[in-house]
Design brief:
single chain, TIM Barrel, about 35% helix, about 15% strand, globular, signal, Glyco_hydro_5, Cellulase family glycosylhydrolase
Length: about 375
């Protein structure tokens, strides 16, 4: 009897140990969104030289603390990791962005560079970006720059490879580090969701919506004073699902990347483009703030010409007029001589065709 009890006790103890170990392994696969990373610290507000107002969502508009409508007009730069490799990451770059008239800068953070530099080193450089942008009274968008379908963890290229765990941990670290920093206005949750034209099955909006809401919850636990930015499908072009099933969280905005070849008009007229854009993404501006975080073009024989950015230049005035009529903010791609469509042709900041156009638009009062 005593022997059986001892065996029974040993068996029960083994089961409990196994169960506890299994729970620990499962929990280790996901970030604890109720706690900060043990080696995280907060950005010191003493590094900010200008007092900037927090930007928030009111209806379908972005507003400052005085309730005034804010339209962002800005520029994308290359990944800070890429710029560091080329010795181009500097305050001088931000001075030039300011000279072009940008009031917001988008920082595309690729998972590949985030891992390559390492979290702590990358954050040191993001700290510099916050400090420099603030000195020139510019705002920032931090963009988790992956292309693919996060729920299935399938991506367009290895530089975009990430996981749900890494994405959640990234936003947990970033939102804790920069909580209550007005210079960072927007967190773009995922750059371009796509099922790669059906190559990974069909993207599911309910699935994508749920995951974005989980990311927003992580961010809001640390920082409710930032605007989460949600992308639609087809490489962040198509927002039609939100007409019936919007993201169920307050204070958010949506993004679209309406490159010229995304719309395929039967007649090459302005009104035809406007109708197509309205149908797929522009309609959303009636209810929600929209920030088109990537726009731009290059001629067919230009550097890095590829679908969907090829255009003769007529796209520029059309997309700007479309967005002006609807109060849509925008960020042109990309202030870099290597990545296409380029805004500059060299590191002397010589404007390309689209660079000339967007610089003029940015400098308009």
């Amino acid at each position: 009897m005593h022997i059986k009890r001892r065996y029974l006790f040993t068996f029960v103890l083994f089961v409990l140990m196994f169960h506890t170990s299994a729970i620990a392994n499962v929990n280790s696969a996901y970030p604890n969104t109720n706690e900060k990373n043990p080696d995280s610290t907060q950005f010191s507000l003493s590094r900010l030289s200008n007092k900037q107002q927090f930007i928030s969502v009111k209806g379908n508009k972005l507003v400052n603390e005085l309730g005034q409508n804010i339209i962002f007009k800005g520029l994308n730069i290359a990944d800070p990791g890429k710029l560091l490799e080329q010795n181009k990451w500097s305050k001088a770059l931000f001075a030039e962005l300011n000279a072009w008239g940008a009031n917001i800068i988008r920082l595309p953070i690729h998972p590949m560079y985030w891992r390559k530099l390492g979290r702590q080193k990358y954050i040191q450089h993001l700290d510099d970006a916050v400090t420099w942008a603030n000195q020139y009274n510019m705002y920032l968008i931090i963009d988790w720059h992956s292309i693919g379908y996060l729920p299935k963890e399938i991506y367009q290229h290895k530089m975009y490879d990430t996981t749900i765990h890494e994405t959640k941990a990234f936003w947990q670290d970033i939102s804790y580090r920069y909580q209550n920093v007005p210079t960072i206005a927007v967190y773009e949750l995922f750059n371009e969701p796509t099922d790669l034209a059906g190559k990974v099955g069909k993207a599911n909006w309910a699935e994508w919506k749920k995951l974005n809401e989980e990311l927003i919850d992580i961010i809001y636990r640390h920082d409710p004073n930032v605007i989460p930015l949600v992308a639609g499908f087809n490489w962040a072009y198509d927002l039609r699902p939100i007409a019936d099933n919007p993201i169920d969280r307050p204070g958010i905005a949506y993004t679209s990347h309406p490159y010229p070849q995304k719309a395929k008009p039967t007649i090459n007229s302005k009104q035809n483009y406007f109708d197509l854009w309205d149908e797929v993404w522009g309609f959303a501006a009636k209810k929600y703030p929209i920030i088109a975080t990537e726009i731009g073009w290059v001629k067919a024989d230009g550097k890095g010409a590829h679908i969907p950015v090829i255009n003769d230049g007529s796209y520029g005035p059309q997309i700007i007029e479309f967005m002006q009529q609807r109060g849509i903010s925008w960020v042109a791609w990309v202030f870099d001589p290597d990545w296409s469509p380029t805004m500059i042709s060299d590191w002397q900041f010589t404007p390309t065709q689209q660079g000339v156009f967007f610089k003029q638009e940015l400098l308009k009062k």
